[in-house]
Amino acid sequence: MKPGNWKAGEAVMTAGSENQPFNQDERFETRHWPLEIRYLAAEKRLLIDFDNGISFAYPAELLRVESPSAEVQGHGPGQKELIAGRRHVGIMEIEAVGNYAVKLKFDDLHDTGIYSWQYLYHLGENQEQIWADYLAALDERGLSRDP
Q: DSSP string covering 52-98, please?
C-alpha cells in the first residue's frame, strides 16, 4: 500500500509527542504523514516511513492490543481493556480512511480500530515503553501472550 496521494496537513500535533501521553481526543491532528506503508506478512510487521525521514516497524500484536477502538480503549479514561493471547495475530487487510488514517483488519477478526497517522507515530515513538507496560500488565494479572 503506497499512499502517494495523501497530502501533508497544516495541523500541529499537540499531544502524543515525546514524554506526553497520547490524547485520544486529538488523534486526528497530524504533524507527520506516511510516505509508504508495507506489511511483511511472514514477520507480521507493519512498516511505515514518515515524511520526516523516520520509519517504524510495528508488530501486529502491538497494533492489535493497542487498538484505538472503543473495544480496547473504552469510552473514557481508565476503561482500557488488557487484551491477552494475541502473540500470533496477523493483519489481513489495510484500508485507507480518508487521508488521515488506516483501518486494520486482524486475523482474529478485530476490525474496529481506526489508526490515525498521529496515533501510529505515537506508538512508534513510544513502542518500547508501551510494550514493556503491556508485558508487565499481563504478568501482573497472570495472563499470557499465547492463545
A: TS-EEEEEHHHHHHT--SHHHH-SSTT-PPPP-S-TT--EEEEEEET
